Structures are given as structure tokens and as C-alpha cells.
Amino acid sequence: GNELPEITEYVDEEVKSDEKSPLYGIAEDKNVIFISLESIQSFVINNEVNGQEITPFLNSLIGDESTYYFENFYHQTQQGKTSDSEFLVENSLYPLSRGAVFFTHGGNEYNGMPEILGEEDYYSAVFHANNKSFWNRDQMYDSLNLDHFYGEEAYEVNQDNSVGWGLKDKPFFEQSIKYLQSMEQPFYSKFITLTNHFPFELSEEDSSIDKYDSSSNTLNNFFPTVRYMDEAVEQFFTQLKESGLYEDSVIILMGDHYGISENHHKAMSEYLDKEEITPYDHVQLQRVPMFIHIPGHENGKVMSEVTGQIDVKPTLLNLLGVPAENDIQFGNDMFIEDRKGYIGLRNGDFISDEYISTRGVCYDRESGEPIETEENTEENTEENTSAENQVANPCDPIQQKVEKEMELSDNIIYGDLFRFVDFSESEDEQNTD
Ligand code: GP9
Ligand code: MN
């Protein structure tokens, strides 16, 4: 554990802020209903296919006074897909660059959301109609101190109510409500949807909008399943209202990772009406929708700040008024000004307020134009590289921080370093109980 002082020092200096969130404690003692939206990307929001709106319900939340919508929110997952997004949200640590940390380090000590909120008397549960060993969730959820996992066996699954990967999202939410109603409050719950999963299968009957027509069946099929998920979420909101749980809850909706990979760039360029999908566009396609819906709240708006999955834990803890001051987090509250100012993707790319860095090229974030640096200017002759002619690459200092941060986060995981940390509040407080 002798790497810990370096890690805490780095996090204290480079990540943490003293700024108090303007929304600190606004959802104190409320239930948390976190909905993980499978494979959705932000490009479907407020967009159409064949002249039909793709996500009418999600769109209706934007502009609703009780909703904050983050339009520049990035997923930061790698090979562990859904499980990586869960890992980011629960821990504000980075997943690994290879493999799925849920499998490779599922037995580590963590200081995740279920554990922190457990100390505030929250009951924690995950709802997901899939086998508990998928992504090694059974072991990882134990390590996260989750109280209960409602997996496949908690649901009635048959041919009629299934498609593709299993239980369809509408019956999934319908069947979940009874469990939620009987749960001790306040609770921290997470619902993981499944129907909008590759290869995006859906019956005609369940399809409210037509498929797209392009060279990629994957992209073609994607739109009707996204719409189905949108309808399932709308139904769930209605059921929450009917059950009386709605008013006492804060509802988070977040995309877990991309659904359309770069193998479908040709079809994507047709859909987005672009000549080609550039590396810059590809990074921008890693945006996933993020909504924070607080019933009764009236200041909701569209947030344009650069944010990502690493930021969810600090943001949510602050909304709930849980300081967790000794926690080691690599993200910031999305509502404060004094943030790190960049989001690192797990392949080393990053998005900062001003730049996007991918494949060694530094782009202006707003315009998408590459920034001229000594590495890419044509007059890169020996003469010109003399000190005074060099144009420094403005992405370099941020790149270094991104790499440092990920190295430190990896060290925590590889060394299982949280075994050596006491996350409880100050000693004074400890002595009082
Ligand atoms: C499986 C579901 C989908 O349980 O979470 O996993 P994914 O393939 O998206 O990681
Ligand atoms: Mn997924």
C-alpha cells in the first residue's frame, strides 16, 4: 500500500474541489432510481429517422423543469461494456484498458455507492433480467456490498415476453415495480435494460417506428429498439407515479456505452448526412445521454459542460447530501465550475473544454479542426523545429494528466489498494458512536 500517499495527494491536488455544489443535499433521503440505458448514444436524442421521432419520451424530459440533461456527457467504457459503465458509476475509478475489471478484480475491496449509501441507511438493489454470473456480477456486487440483486430468476420469462437477449424492457419494468414497492426506503436502485442490445432484434408488433434503410442492418435495426426502450422508460415513469414512489425519488437515466461501432461508419455517415465520419466525429459519437430528473425541482436545464461516467458518483453523492470526504474519486461533481475540465476515454483519447485528442491529433473541440503543432505542420524541417519556431501542442499537458490519472486508478485495482484505506469519516465522528 505504499503507493497510496501518491494517489491521495494527486487526487487532492488535481481532482478534488472545495467548491460546494449548488444542488448539494437537494435530494437528501430520496430514493435513487438509476436506469442504465443499453447501447443508446446521444445522436438519437432530438433526432428523427424516416421523419419519425426516435425518442419522444426522453426528448420530452429535456426542457422539463425537473430535468438536467447533459449533452456533452461521454461513456468511458472499454471491453467490459455494461459492466465497465457500472464500475465507473459505483466507484468513480476507471475500468481497465483490457478485459473487464468485473471479472479480473471482482474480489477486490471497493468503496462503492452501495457501501457509502449503506452507511446512510440506504437499501441497495440492482434489477437486471439476466444470469447473475454474466459479467461476474454476483461476485462484484458482493464486493460492492450490494444488498440484493434481482436477476433472471426474479422474473417470469417466457417466449412471449422475450426477444434477443431475454426479457423485453416493458415486462421487465412491469415485473420490477412490485419489488421496488416492497423495498425498505430510502433505496438505491439500478435498472439495467436489455432490449436495445446488439443485434437489436424486435418483432414488428413491438416496433413503433420503421427501420432505417442503409448498408448496415445493425444501424437499420437500432432505431426501432431504441424507440422501444424509450417507451418502456415512459411506462416505468407512469408506474412509478401510480405506485407513489415517484415524488420521493431522484431518477437518473444514463447510456452505458455506444451501440453502433466504427464498423458501421459508412452507414452512420449516410444517416448523419456527412461525407465521412472523421476520428473527431468518432469521439463525438461516444456521447451518451445523461439525465438527472428530480421531481418537484424547478431549475432543470440543458448542461453543455464536458462530463462523463467518472463524474456520476461525486455528483449523485452531493445531490443526496452525502459528503464521503475520504473517498478516492477521479471525477467531479457535474454541477460545480471548478472541475478538472477534461474527460479521458479509456483508449487514451480525451475531450477537454477546448480540445479533443484522438490518434495523436489535437482538435479544436468546437470547430473540429486539427490544431497546427510542430508535429503536423508541413514545414517541419530541422530549421523550423528550433525552439522559437515550435508550436507547442496544447493537448500534451492534458494528455499527461489523463495518462497519470489512469495509471493511478489502475494501480488501485491491480494492488487491491483499498484494503489499506479507512474510508470512514473523521476520527471525532467515529468516536461518537
Ligand atoms: C448483459 C448486459 C449487456 O447482462 O448487461 O451487456 P453488454 O454486452 O452490453 O456489456
Ligand atoms: Mn451494455
UniProtKB/TrEMBL annotation:
Membrane topology per record: Multi-pass membrane protein
Biased composition (Acidic residues): 369-382
GO molecular function: metal ion binding; transferase activity
Sulfatase N-terminal domain segment(s): 30-322
Signal peptide coordinates: none
Binding-site residues, substrate: H197
UniProt superkingdom: Bacteria
Main location: membrane
Keywords: Cell membrane, Manganese, Membrane, Metal-binding, Transferase, Transmembrane, Transmembrane helix
One GO term describing the cellular component: plasma membrane
Region (Disordered): 364-395
Cellular localization per UniProt: Cell membrane
Catalytic residues identified in the record: T82
Binding residues annotated for Mn(2+), in chain numbering: E38, T82, D256, H257
Family, similarity comment: Belongs to the LTA synthase family.
Annotated protein name in UniProt: Phosphoglycerol transferase MdoB
Originating species: Lentibacillus halodurans
